[in-house]
Design a protein that fits this description.
- Pfam families: Helicase_C, HIRAN, SNF2-rel_dom, zf-C3HC4_3.
- One of its GO terms (biological process) is DNA repair.
- This protein is 36% helix and 18% strand.
- It has 892 residues and is an alpha/beta fold.
- Strands 18-19-16-20-21-10-22 form a 7-stranded parallel β-sheet, with helices on both faces. The protein has a 6-stranded antiparallel beta barrel with strand order 1-4-3-2-5-6. Strands 12-13-14-15-11-17 form a 6-stranded antiparallel β-sheet.
- The longest helix is centred in the middle third of the chain and has 24 residues.
- The radius of gyration is 31 Å and the shape is globular.
- The two termini are 58 Å apart.
- The protein binds a DNA duplex (13 and 13 nucleotides) through strand 4.
DNA sequence: ACCGCCGGGTGCC
DNA sequence: ACCGCCGGGTGCC
């Protein structure tokens, strides 16, 4: 019940109590179910046609709509008068009326059976006080089109399939076009000085970001696409209007490239912008001499006059002090806290005395970050908060974490991880994080929540806060879809409800509508600040980064290696050729990946192959089948292909493999199965084989990658290893202080590389995904150390650690094998080519000549082009492009 | 007149 | 609702 109430608030500023006739809770639950459930995606839907219908009963409800406004159609199966009822609501969820009975009966069948989704636009608005027309458009899967149109026609409602609805739509879009620049009026150019409590001077672009962030938190302009029309506020995209000023998003997305100081800027924001633009009152640790010149007339004693004959500060006492510091005169209450030998005083700024109780209720900023960057946050607070300032930062992590709401909300900053938050959320009533009204929430690497089905995302969405920020170097990774969750988190109305997002942004964009793309851009620009490493302020680059050169070093295979490679290639090519001819490439995707994988391993080192070749025969028993599937799952995940789940189009989380060997996130495929099962047997979204929940195979928990360390007696080299060692030895001669990253997707290759490194007396450390957080931090510290005996080389698994890792001690990067996704490589390079790098960065990519690796590089290039075009690639595009990729890789 | 016509009452689902 | 529909009152022109 708690959840229901909260969601109601989340869906829009709905007044629960104005109209007793409205069954608001039920209505909104349905809207929200539509928003959260994996309804047939807008981008997969086709228009069946449209129909002019009638909305009746207007006089019974308070919801008002304008000419051209979009309305929501919600089934009301519980309606006492008619179980076919379809209610009409505006964007805030206020009921406008009902669909006329006969039409509602027909629509109810179509809607309840998920044959189509119906959307409405009211061409005339509520002129008439009794009824009004509504333009209904039916959307759904192609295969349901005929069924729906026939059914509706039989009931006497013939869908019009020639397009006059587009007139309505384009009218709306042109309408919004006029206001395109309104949201951009807010200048991003101003600079703001940070509060004194920030110990590190900000760079100009960081002051700019601070200024922008403060403005976003404090100013109360209208959100994008809203304008004032007389007494009302009007949304030009949905044509919705409201009496109350639409709540502005207090926060946004800081999407600067990594290395530009998002963390520092955020710390500055926390210290600089408390309530009403005033700095956060913080405890100051000052010595007696500095803090108060005892005779100063500025100091007014207000309590318990200290006995001057004794130690002046022997007992707790309070002073009222006026200081002309911090640009403004501030009255401070000083409290002596006797436990610290350095004479600690607690300063409470004037604001905290005068402020209303309401403001005081929220003082804490909650920072949620991936585990890998937790320590970075703590370091940065340590580093950037002025040493005289005692900021209360609490790390909410570990089993001994303090779960007291009172304690947490008295902190200045609480830091936690997505996992902890998500774990707490699973028992929501007990989650202290969900019981606090935060001043501000900061999501570090906020793109983590872009899959709305993920438990973590739900946990994040359910937090209460006045201000919300997303920090992310890559806010859009795959498609426009990624953005929805971010906007929902920011409570960007009305797009936090999925239907309006789909109708106004997502569908127009996926259909290639230019105005749709414009609107999206406007929307994003309004709430996002993004600078890249190459951006400039006043004609100067933001940061001075040393030059970076990337060179490809071709590796020639030895004769034996070449022979083995060609053998494997021909065999694989025949298999894939057969799949292509049969049209079963996707059905045999795991096999295809296995073939490619083997070729890629051949290019690196023959010993990589040993294990994966142990293909079991045609296993007949379920146990054997399971074993093989686990093996394939391992293969798919280890292949570094950045496998994405075809349901959420995101990289797989909680991977499971189907019997047809396709990998999905467990929640995603479970949802697909439960939805499809209702009418039919569930089918694999990729190859249409029948699938069952009970047959999903996941990675066994106990499965720990047992390193069959190739013992050094049997150790042999390979052409690629030789190429690397040649470079490393040369570099060591040139300058022994140079540090290198040696990167591979195959952790077993890293293990193999340990042999020649030891042989040649290199000191090295290793960082891969299997290491505990503690070990990681230690390894990074060791490597970053400038001590003479510190490691010169880091063996790094491509995906380890994720973004945010700081490896600036290295200036040379060796990418041992190409990745499918060039962004992964870029991210990896950026770990050393970032703020703090003093040397020129040299990146060497090893590519085996005449091999699958060369083909991969070609495809990479193609994908980057695609990424630059940004939007538009649909799911089916992806599938065909993937098959094309495979063909190209095998030169078919 | 087991009709038509008139005019008042009435009105979502 | 300046409608449609219902049902009661009414009944040549």
């Amino acid at each position: 019940m708690l959840m229901v109430q909260y969601l109601v608030i989340g869906a829009g500023e709905v007044d629960l109590f104005t109209d007793p006739h409205e069954n608001t809770t039920e209505t909104l639950l349905q809207l929200l179910r539509a928003a959260v459930s994996p309804e047939p995606e807008a981008d997969g839907s086709v228009l069946f046609g449209h129909l002019r219908g009638t909305v009746v009963g207007l006089r019974y409800y308070t919801g008002v709509v304008n000419r051209g406004e979009m309305v929501g159609l919600v089934r009301q199966p519980q309606n006492q008068h008619d179980r076919n009822a379809v209610m009409v609501a505006n964007i805030y969820g206020n009921q406008v009326g009902h669909i006329k009975r006969e039409l509602a009966a027909a629509m109810a069948y179509v809607m309840d059976n998920n044959l189509a989704k119906v959307e409405g636009v009211v061409p005339s608005g509520t002129n008439n006080s009794f009824t009004m027309p509504v333009m209904l458009s039916f959307w759904g899967k192609e295969e349901h089109k005929a069924t729906v149109n026939e059914f509706m026609a039989r009931r006497g409602f013939k869908l019009n399939t020639s397009g006059n609805l587009h007139i309505v739509l384009s009218f709306q879009l042109r309408n919004s076009f006029d206001n395109l620049f309104e949201g951009l009026m807010e200048s991003k150019d101003g600079e703001k000085e940070a509060a004194k409590a920030v110990g590190t001077p900000l760079l100009p672009h960081q002051k700019q970001a601070l200024s922008w962030m403060c403005a976003r938190e404090n100013k109360s302009g209208l959100p994008p696409f809203w304008e004032k029309r007389g007494e009302l506020y009007y949304n030009s995209l949905t044509c919705f209007s409201a009496k109350e000023i639409p709540e502005r998003v207090r926060g946004g997305i800081l999407a600067d490239d990594m290395g530009l100081g998002k963390t520092l800027t955020t710390i500055a924001l926390i210290l600089t912008n408390f309530h009403q633009g005033k700095p956060l009152p913080v405890e100051k640790c000052v010595s007696v001499v500095e803090g108060i010149s005892g005779d100063s007339s500025d100091v007014m004693e207000i309590m318990d006059k200290p006995d001057k004959s004794k130690n002046r500060f022997s007992s707790p006492c309070f002073y009222l002090v006026c200081l002309s510091d911090l640009n403004t005169t501030v009255i401070l209450v000083l409290q002596y806290t006797p436990m610290n030998k350095h004479q600690m005083y607690k300063f409470c700024a004037e604001s905290s005395i005068i402020e209303s109780a309401e403001d005081l209720s929220a003082r804490t900023t909650l920072i949620i970050a991936p585990l890998s960057v937790l320590s970075n946050w703590l370091d940065q607070f340590e580093q950037h908060v002025h040493p005289d300032v005692k900021l209360n930062v609490y790390l909410y992590y570990g089993s001994a974490r303090n779960r007291s709401k009172k304690f947490l909300s008295s902190q200045d900053v609480v830091i936690t991880t997505y996992n902890v938050l998500s774990a707490d959320f699973s028992c929501k009533s007990k989650s202290p994080l969900h019981g606090i009204d935060w001043l501000r929430i900061v999501l570090d690497e906020g793109h983590i929540i872009r899959n709305p089905n993920a438990q973590t995302s739900k946990a994040v969405l359910d937090l209460k806060a006045q201000r919300r920020w997303i920090l992310s170097g890559t806010p859009i990774q795959n498609s426009v879809k990624d953005l929805w969750m971010l906007l929902a988190f920011l409570r960007l109305k009305p797009f936090d409800v999925r239907e309006w997002w789909n109708r106004v942004i997502q569908r127009p964009v996926t259909l290639g509508d230019r105005a749709g793309v414009q609107n999206l851009q406007t929307l994003v620009k309004c709430i996002t600040l993004r600078r890249t490493k190459t951006s400039e302020v006043n004609g100067r680059p933001l940061v001075f980064l040393p030059e970076k050169t990337v060179c490809v070093e071709q590796v020639e295979l030895s004769r034996t290696e070449r022979e083995e490679y060609e053998l494997a290639r021909n065999e694989g090519r025949n298999t894939i050729r057969r799949y292509v001819a049969e049209g079963t490439v996707l059905r045999n995707y795991a096999d295809v990946l296995a073939i490619l994988m083997r070729l890629r391993q051949h290019c690196c080192h023959p010993d990589l192959l040993a294990k994966t070749l142990s293909e079991l025969g045609a296993g007949a028993t379920p146990a054997e089948l399971r074993e093989r599937l686990i093996e394939k799952l391992r293969l798919v995940l280890a292949s570094g292909s950045d496998e994405e789940c075809s349901v959420c189009l995101d990289s797989v989380q909680l991977p499971v493999i189907t019997h047809c060997a396709h990998v999905y996130c467990r929640p995603c495929i479970a949802q697909v199965i439960s939805t499809e099962q209702v009418h039919d047997t569930a089918r694999c979204p990729l190859c249409r084989s029948e699938i069952k929940t009970s047959e999903l195979v996941e990675f066994p928990q106990e499965e720990v990658e047992e390193e069959n360390t190739p013992n050094s007696e049997k150790w042999r080299t390979s052409s690629k290893v030789q190429a690397l060692m040649g470079n490393l030895l040369r570099l060591r001669c040139e300058d022994s202080s140079i540090k290198c990253l040696v990167v591979s997707q195959f952790t077993r290759f890293l293990t193999i590389l340990e042999n020649p490194l030891r042989e040649h007396g290199f000191t090295f450390v290793r960082l891969d995904g299997t290491m505990s957080q503690k070990k990681r931090t230690r390894v990074i510290q060791e490597f970053q150390s400038t001590a003479a005996d510190s490691p010169a080389i880091m063996l790094l698994s491509l995906k380890a650690g994720g973004v945010g890792l700081n490896l600036t001690a290295a200036s040379h990067v060796f990418l041992m094998d190409p990745a499918w996704n060039p962004a992964t490589e870029e991210q990896c390079i950026d770990r050393c080519h970032r703020l703090g790098q003093k040397r020129k960065v040299v990146v060497t990519k090893f590519i085996v000549k005449d091999s699958v690796e060369e083909k991969m590089v070609e495809i990479q290039r193609g994908k980057q082009d695609l990424v630059e075009k940004a939007f538009g690639s649909t799911n089916s595009d992806r599938k065909t492009s993937r098959i094309d990729d495979i063909k190209a890789l095998m030169e078919l």
